[in-house]
Write a structure and sequence with these properties.
Arginase, Chain A, 9 helices, 285 residues, binds manganese (II) ion
Length: 285
C-alpha cells in the first residue's frame, strides 16, 4: 500500500466506510502501450474537478462514507498482482463494502471477480474488446483474457460485454463465445435496450461493472493503450450505471493511460464515472 493524495471526499476510516477505493497500478501485460500504472494517481487528482454533489441524483442526497485504501503494491507477474489484490480487496468484499478499483490494466479485474463466491455475481464489461482469449502472449492472465477467466468463475451465463468492436477470429469461431452487443448494434438499438437485454440474460442478481475506458469512443477517451474508433458515448456509460442501479455491487475503471492523455480529459471522465457509481450506490442504500 502506498499513501498519497486520497480520492476527493474519501475522508472515512475503513471501519466506518460504506465504499472503499483501491488503486491497482499494474500494466505489465499491456500489449500496445504501457502507462496505465500512472492512472490511479492521475484519476485521484482529476477527482478534485467536481462539485461535491451531482444534482441529478438529488440535491440533498446522502453521500457515501468512503475510504481510500491507497495503491496496492506493484509487481511484474500478474499472479503476484493477483495475490496483492486478493489481500487488499477480498476483506472489503467480505465486509460488505462497495468496492471501487482504479486500474491499471484490465487484468486487475480478474482477482477482484475471484474474491466473490462462484456464480454469485454477474460481470458486465464496457469494452471495445471481448477480452475472451484463453491465453495471450503466453499468459492466461493477460488483459486480453479477462472475460474468459470471469466466465470460468461465474459461468458463461454471468458475463456480458457492451460496446465490443475489435474482436479476434478465435474469439468468435467457437461454441462458448462471450455474450456481447457491439457498439454498432448499440448505436442502432440504444443503450437502454442494450443494458436491459444484458441484465435480463445474466443469471445472478448482483452485478459488478468493469469499465475498460477504451469501450468509450477515443474522441472522448483518447488516453488509453489500444484506442478503437466507433465507440460508446460517455453518456451511454452513465446510463448503464444508473440502469444497473440497485443491482450494482462493485465497479472498476481500467486502461486509462495518462502518458497518452496530455489534456487529462480521459482521467477526468474516469473520475466522473467513479462518482456516478458511488452516487448510484448511495441512492439505493
Ligand atoms: Mn479494451
Ligand atoms: Mn479490456
Amino acid at each position: 500500500m502506498s499513501y498519497g493524495l486520497a480520492y476527493a471526499g474519501a475522508e472515512s476510516e475503513y471501519n466506518d466506510a460504506e465504499a472503499v477505493i483501491f488503486g491497482i497500478p499494474y500494466d505489465h501485460t499491456a500489449c500496445f502501450k504501457a502507462g496505465a500504472r500512472e492512472a490511479p494517481t492521475a484519476i485521484r487528482r482529476a477527482s478534485y474537478n467536481f462539485e461535491e454533489i451531482h444534482f441529478e441524483h438529488g440535491i440533498h442526497q446522502r453521500r457515501l462514507e468512503v475510504y481510500d485504501y491507497g495503491n496496492c503494491d506493484d509487481f511484474i507477474l500478474p499472479e503476484d498482482m493477483f495475490a496483492e489484490v486478493d489481500f487488499a480487496v477480498r476483506p472489503a468484499i467480505n465486509d460488505g463494502k462497495f468496492t471501487v478499483a482504479i486500474g491499471g490494466e484490465h487484468s486487475i479485474n480478474i482477482p477482484i471477480v475471484r474474491a466473490f463466491p462462484e456464480k454469485s455475481i454477474a460481470l458486465i464489461s464496457i469494452d471495445a474488446h471481448l477480452d475472451s482469449r484463453g491465453e495471450y502472449l503466453g499468459t492466461p492472465n493477460s488483459h486480453a483474457c479477462v472475460m474468459r477467466r470471469a466466465a470460468e468463475h461465474l459461468g458463461l451465463d454471468n458475463v456480458y460485454v457492451l460496446g465490443a468492436r475489435a474482436i479476434g477470429e478465435e474469439e468468435l469461431d467457437r461454441d462458448d463465445v462471450v455474450p456481447f452487443i457491439s457498439s454498432y448494434d448499440i448505436m442502432d438499438m440504444g443503450i437502454e435496450k442494450a443494458i436491459g437485454k444484458a441484465l435480463d440474460e445474466v443469471k445472478a442478481e448482483k452485478v459488478y461493472l468493469t469499465v475498460d475506458i477504451d469501450g468509450i469512443d477515443p474522441a472522448f477517451a483518447p488516453g488509453t493503450g489500444t484506442p478503437e474508433p466507433f465507440g460508446l458515448m460517455p453518456m451511454d456509460v452513465k446510463k448503464v450505471i444508473n440502469i444497473i442501479g440497485e443491482r450494482l455491487v462493485g465497479f472498476d475503471v481500467n486502461e486509462v493511460c495518462p502518458p497518452a492523455d496530455p489534456s487529462g480529459i480521459t482521467s477526468i471522465l474516469a473520475a466522473r464515472l467513479i462518482n456516478e457509481a458511488l452516487a448510484v450506490h448511495a441512492k439505493h442504500l
